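User: Can you write out an input/output pair for a complex, sequences first and structure second?

Assistant: Here is one pair. Inputs:
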Amino acid sequence: MRLPASRARALAGGTELVPLLRDHLVDAETLVELRNVVPRGIDGTTIGAGTTLGELEVDPEIPKALREACRLAASPQIRAMGTIGGNLLQATRCWYWRLKFPCWLHGGDRCFAKAGAHREHAVFGNEQCASAHPSDPAAALVALGARLRTNERELAVEELYRLPTDDDRSTTALRPGELILELEVPAPDASTYLKAMDRKAFSFPLVGVAAARTTSGTRIALSGVAPIPWALESLEDATPLPGTAYKLDIARALVDRALTEVGG
Amino acid sequence: MARLIKTKKEVEGRYSETWVVVEEDALDQWPAGPLTTVGREATRLDGAERARGEAIYTADLIFPGMLHAAILRSPYSRARVRALDLDPALDAPGVRAVLGPDELDALTDEPGYVGAPVAAVAADTEAQARAAVELVSVEWELLEPLVDPDEAVEQESFLNEPRRYERGDLDRGLAEADAVVEAEYRTQVALHNCMEPHGAVCRWQRDNLEVYISTQFIWGVRSDVADELGLPEDRVRVVCEFMGGGFGSKNGPREHTYVAAELAKRTGRAVKCFNNRREENLDAGNRNGTIQRLVAGARADGTLTALGGEFVNAVGYRGFSASTSGPMQMLYACPNVRTVENGAKLNMPPNAAFRAPGFVEGTFGLECLLDELAAKLELDPLELRRKNHTDSDLVGERPFSSKNLIECYRRAEPHWERRHAVRARTDGPWKRGVGLASQIWYGGGGPPSYAWVRVGSDGRVTVVTAMQDIGTGTRTAMAQIAAEELAVGLERVSVELGDSARGPYASISAGSSTTPSMGPAVRAAAADAARQILEIAAQRYDVEQRVLSLKNGHVVSANGGSWPLEDVTDLLDDGQILGKGARGPNPTGMRVLTFGVQVAEVAVDVETGEVRVERVAAVHDVGRIINPLGARSQIEGGIIQAVGYALTEQRIDDPATGIPLTRTLDAYKVPTIADVPEIVTDFIDIPDEHLTNLGSKGLGEPPIIPTAAAIANAIRDATGADVHSLPITREEMLRALREARERVRDEVAAPTA
């Protein structure tokens, strides 16, 4: 099963795609509705990519990190429509990118955020592009060591993402026509997701911290701090900008709290 | 009998002298306290309509054959149009007409800010119009913009001469002080983000122009449009029945009206021109940012000896320089005050009045500074306010018409007293504290304003006035006033408003002036109708009119005898009684102001910089309260808006180009329901006996004024950290916490002798 060739876009909940189309950030000749193609629903540790955030939020069998990441994301209306598969593929909220400045991520040669307004931007992986990845669930899935099954292969969630480079400015490794079908989310011993945002609700993460403890140890992943979900090795590795240094204070506190909560 | 007088009219602190025709206001005020209808809770007359989506706002209007207009706006902060080709737009699908910058005053070929209107297109659908705008071919010459307020000050780029105020001698006052505090405060650009965007629908009926517009001032739009188009005023009809928020940004016609009117004229069809949300975040007005360098001095016992301030209002390309210095001049009994205020001209979107313009920003600076002074003197902040209470207006050197601020402080005490228990509820990284701030503002309204009250043969009452209800609930308040005066149940009263062709002149709904301006006119009209009813009843029942009165839907005689109102009105057959009323003059030789105090409780996570406002107690003195439920809603709305202003709202601009970056409601963060604190309201509710037949002042703006300062002061109480800029984002909170820690560390290392 393959998507029809170029200028066709896959559409599930539409909560990201429709605004991108409306703002002419992506174009499409054909929208391919995925309802009958992509599985939806939870079966043990297997989650259909068409499952909505709202469905994941209320299922007690879902690991806490993922449940909380869904609960703290967006708004109830958006969570009722947005799918976990689509959520992983969100574009950055960087205002320069969204307003179509000819920035590096768009194929140009400079990052406007670095010298400009960047309070919501990255502290890691920001050498070329200072954009931040907005997905809460993605960080949770990285920490949980989840895997994806597409119509072509199987890969770790982490492998879905790549830092953009000079010759390839995309932040995901999906091939043209490739669709995420299912997620495999192993149950941890303990997990959590803590989120710092500007309001109490309906805000993208300034810093989100996911932690998951399994027998092989505790993994931590951060949202909102790098162009892609960031598997954390050390906060000392951070390369903050003048206007994002505050995010490290927040990250430090939340990482401590997350580790305390998952214990071990 | 009609009288022609000259009187002072005040809107948002700006005074103008005006001639008005008034009827003598012979009515005595009602006694204080809840009456039959006035002073009692009433649900909004139009609440169900609005909630069900049945209310038709201007943005909802659809006329047969109506076209949609879209505007080409400048993408640059400062540029010149070297060449412009509208043909590609004219050739686009659905397009019926185009307008270039030389064809309308509202369009420009030398835009001075991002978003300035340059050209316009009318098409069959909005999507077609907006798509066509993209096709307009423009050759821009880019010019160097001035976008930074500090640089504007350096270059002395000001809108007009500095505004200076002085009383006493500031330098002497500072020398006399036992303690002096000095600080710089900065506030951000905030956007109104009204739920209903700006816009209008225009339709020509031969030589008459109908303007349907989301507006705060039907009659102002009427006269401005007539003036601009060279029409007699009575050929312009302005309609606004339901309105989705203005907050000061919809006080005049704006470009949408003129674009729609011109395109409607050329096409012979109705034309709708509305902003989308992005345009609302770009060129719909804003509360400008401010830079405030303040100093305060006081004696050891807390008596203020000196207050001084240099204020920069970063107004933008156009607009007005609001009175950020007002609170410093007016609030306290300080003998030595000096303020200098400048409005900086920048290549940034023009400001517009925004709910107590200047006073919100200025109260933040002043009330935070006073708390810093209280901390230095080791005085209780509430005591410091009380100590410096002034009984008369020191700026205008007049008495107040009424002032119950001391009573507000007294009623704030139990809320202030909670601070011990609140501080004790510190848990883990969450520190809790309580802060307060005083409020001063205008709210007296003024003439002219007129109303009619129609009583039909069925004894039902209609209040008729061409005023607008911008969401404040004034429609309901007017009904209550008429019901009270005519002694009928509220369910028998309806209100017709919003159409300049179908009612008499009404004031602007801005500056907290609708209730104090319209209310007395409605009461006078109802009294006039009542008098006519009693005249008829006297003849019908062969009684002297002077023994008759209205009570509980009946005409009642002091000598016994009671007849249902309908029995009298039934005599009219198909006729009606029409009462007319006008707003009388303002009291002379007195200053009419509103007062209040708010007490905020906050929790601060000192590790992540998160601030939560947990409770706000609001005590407000605004004269007689017409509708306690409506008034409470106003307080709650104002406080919620203030929480957004204090914590999360800011327009963020690209520093290099001045391009506003926050265009959508995910980026420009207004509070969600989850952000709303517990809100406790307490109204003094003592009528201002000098002010009209109602004694009511306006309440639209007071609730938003002191909240940010109360929150900042609560943060200081909780953490010792001094916040000096708004909004209090994570980074500002963390900065202030770090500075507080370093200050403590320095004091420990080198304690002063």
